[in-house]
Design brief:
The chain is an all-alpha fold and about 90 residues long. It contains 3 helices and no strands.
Length: about 90
Amino acid sequence: MRQEKNVPAPATGTAAGIRAGEEVAEQTGSGGETKHDSASVWTQLLLAYGVHKSLIFFRVPLTAAVTPKIVKWLRARGWKIGKPKPQAPNASAN
């Protein structure tokens, strides 16, 4: 029989090319959680904040377009929201 020489295990489905179980076992704890959870949370928060700030060009015009319609709808149902419309002066009062 022919013995195979030191052939590396095939790469799993990651872009980093983690070989079958070697680096994965080093990075995970006993429960399967990664050792770098705190860095991951901060990275997610930073990315979420960046996306939130970058979408300001959509949020502000959308808010400006929708708010008057919502106020009008609420006023029609009896809510007293915002400044009341000024009353037109009566011409017959003079």
